[in-house]
Amino acid sequence: MWLLDYFSVPLPFIYLFLSLSIFWCIKYIFKSVKHLCSLPPGPFGFPIFGYYPFLKEHSYIQFDRLSKKYGPVFSLKLGQYDTIVVCDWDNLKDAFANDALLARPAKGFLSGIEETLSVIAMSGDAWREHRRLSLHVLRNVGLGKREMETLISEEIHQFLSSLETNVNDLPQHLMPSVSNNISALLFGRIFDYDDPDKMIIDQSVQGFSESFQFTGITSFLPWLTKPLIALGKANLKIISKTHKHLNNFITKEVLKHQNKANSKEIEDYIDGYLDAQSKRKDDLFNDMILRRNVISFFVAGSETVTSTLTWTLMYLVKYPQYQEKIRSEIQEVIGTEKRPDFSDRLRMPFTQAFLYEVQRIESVVAINLIRRASQDTKIGPYNVPKDSLVFFNFWSVHHEPKLWPNPDKFDPNRFLTDNGTKVIKPPYLVPFSAGKRACPGEGLANVELFLYTVGILQRFKIKSDKPLSFDAKFGLTRRPKYKPDLIFEKISSQY
Ligand code: HEM
After folding, report:
1. Whose CA is nearest to atom 21 of ligand 1?
2. Where does heme bind (predicted)?
3. Which of 1, 191, 428, 476 has the fewest other C-beta atoms within 10 Å?
């Protein structure tokens, strides 16, 4: 009070100030309680950090457990964000169809490390325009076309030859081979497996995938990213370093494209983007976004497929009887003289069922890339306030016992009709998500998964002389925690 006396503040002002403060506090508490009551139920967390300090590496399993307690759609605070988690098929179906849930977090996924958003992280009109342009260009240069399949088939041929000379060193060449397929679309060329620049970026993608988590600090506590990098927080340092490597490589590639003598011909994604950029009057398309888009497509297009294929090979070893069954389909439909064709899958139901079962049980993208509500909306009966973040827990849906009897059992037959002659893909198998923001690489990934699996089994018997661990590591994707020791025994020669 002496301070107020000193400044001789009149008493009525003090009363007014106190009344306004109390009024503001009551209004704030009332608003917060009303807001909390409007959200689906869920666990409490700490101020500022919310539930974030309790999140573990395999957050999708934690979310699955929380859904048993709070209901199939529940909420929790992560950092400053209200987050809604959808864990069952009925509500997920509803969410897929909701246009108010197409946005991504306003600051993207790498806040504090990279501020320019790529098509994967954009929202609203910018996302719509970039997605439309990206798909248009990629289709023009081969995505979804017969030529792309021929290119993949040729790449697999090189990969299998390298496997013959480097038998048992699968992981070393699988990633460079798979990433060559997306490289062909983005850069207009493929790389030798020992190309030093390409080796660095393949390793960077792997380092990035292991260290990055969509449920990590960069998404929920972005203001902590820079101080933690400065303090040497290991995984953030790796994310930042690998991101720089990727950026340097792509910058060089873009420069090469900009300096091309015959700049009129559109041979790849970079050409197509630069062409569209030059025709626009505004700056919606620019070099920074181009670089970010190329990195995003490169990472999304190689890591996911490599992880799925590695799981596939491991299940082929774990269940040799299924490996033989696929090989007998190969004998019947393709033989050993001809390269596999994607259309062969139509006569190979068991092979297709096996690939579906790997995608279900391992759910490489266990939780969706985070969405954001762009306006107040609902998922089923649950309120979703504007700007809440939304997780689709694919892991839960892929392990829901009502949909998949005995969900922890690996059983490709669940996708086959009773007589085993037809494969059926139920709508609730959603490894690529669904709706307007579903994965644009689904077609390419399916061609790769089929052709690599069949190509390998046509030429090699896969075994292991050690028990394989099926423990997973969850970063950008769910991948095997330990490099599997696989033996590739040659059974037929090159076509
Ligand atoms: C087995 C392989 C793959 C899986 C399981 C997978 C899964 C997914 C999932 C679940 C999403 C999130 C979609 C959403 O928000 O609803 C996604 C997005 C995306 N994927 Fe894939 N993907 C795979 C392969 C690929 C490939 C080969 C490419 C390259 C062409 C690719 C490019 C992308 C891009 C660019 C996005 C962001 C789309 C957007 O935000 O509009 N993916 N993927």
Report:
1. 439
2. 439
3. 1
Residue 463, pLDDT > 80, answer yes
Residue 2 has pLDDT above 60, yes or no: no
Confidence bin at 151 (pLDDT 50/70/90): very high
For 273-326, the pLDDT digits (tens) are 999 998 888 888 999 999 999 999 999 999 999 999 999 999 999 999 999 999
| Chain position carrying tokens 């997973």 | 472
pLDDT, one tens digit per residue, over 365-395 is 999 999 999 999 999 999 999 999 999 999 9
Packing angle of the helix pair 287-318, 170-187 (nearest 10 deg): 150
SS percent in the chain: helix, strand, coil, step 5: 55, 10, 35
Distance from C-alpha of 73 to C-alpha of 66, rounded to nearest angstrom: 10
Alpha-carbon gap, residue 263 to 140, rounded angstroms: 16
406-430, pLDDT tens digit by residue?
999 999 999 999 888 999 999 999 9
Nearest protein Cα to ligand 1, atom 9 = 432
Task: Output the CA 10–ligand 1 centroid distance in Å.
Answer: 65
With contact defined as beta carbons under 8 Å apart, do 24 and 18 qualify? no
Residue indicated by tokens 């009303």: 34
Q: Which residues are annotated as a binding site for heme?
A: 439
Hey, what domains does the chain have and what are their CATH numbers?
2-27+58-490 (1.10.630.10)
294: phi then psi, degrees, rounded to nearest 5: -65, -45
The larger pLDDT score, comparing residue 242 to residue 103, is at: 103
